[in-house]
Amino acid sequence: MNKHFLTFIAAAVILAAGCQSKSQSSTGGTDKTAVAAEETTTANTPTNSETEQPPAVDVSKIKVADAKTILARKQVPILCYHQVRNWKPTDGKVGKDYIVEIQNFKDQVKMLADSGYHSILPDQLYAYLNTGAPLPSKPIMFTFDDTDMDQFTVAAPTLKKYGYKAVYFIMTVSIGKKGKFVDYMTKEQIKQLSDEGNVIGSHTYDHKNFKKYQGKDWEEQLDKPTKKLEEITGKKMTEFAYPFGLWNAEGIPELKKRGFRMAFSLADKRDQNDPLFTVRRIIASGYWSPKTLHNSIVKSF
Ligand SMILES: [Zn+2]
After folding, report:
1. Which CATH architecture has domain 3-300?
2. Which residues surround ligand 1, an ion (CB under 5 A)?
3. Could you give the CA distance from residue 283 to residue 21 in angstroms, rounded to a whole number?
4. pTM for the whole structure
């Protein structure tokens, strides 16, 4: 269909620019309220490093806590990655923030493992934020946006080496496509990531700015992608990542209505009423050495 093709071209143009937004910054936006909370993690919780599946958390029984309680808990560092590949001469200056070179990615992950970080997944974060359920020591969450194939071919095997699991936020228009700059994951690859104990989340149909949704957008950008991803994985979609990290409070009820439990933004401040729908992440920049990444983790969360 012509219309579909044009939409995809439009998406490809957006993709070329990555997930960037003017409002994001890797260091700003730290919630002062959250830093004050006591360290509540414990080393007694089993980690996911030895098993294929993360520790079971019965999230169905969890009652959502009030915003103040959630905001008072110390934030878990969450990293957002896009492309994991070596830079090309055609890559722009801004674009390189979104492209972590292969050896640098391996070094970053090794640094985190050597520093004692344990990867956690949304179930654990959700339980922790709502009930204070213990997390492994030095918890961290890895997230990957935009469906790039190198996340499957490069990032996932690297993480696996250290027993780490991750969340992959899929933009459904790109599934199985070959792009001008990168190729995208196939259905089978997404299914494999899911089967191996990683979490698949929604990143809309074609990356349209969430703040501009109206009318049919909710169906196109939320309902249809959810249906597609649930068909691929056989699991319920409960996590959402805002394109460009951009969100507005008016849209959050639309996510809740559709069964999403948490939504992930970028470095901006969390919403004071809906912190579960404005979970902060930082972009692990392609310019950062492992040391810079470590400093940013400590400073930003
Ligand atoms: Zn994105």
Report:
1. Alpha-Beta Barrel (3.20)
2. 19, 145-146
3. 11
4. 0.84
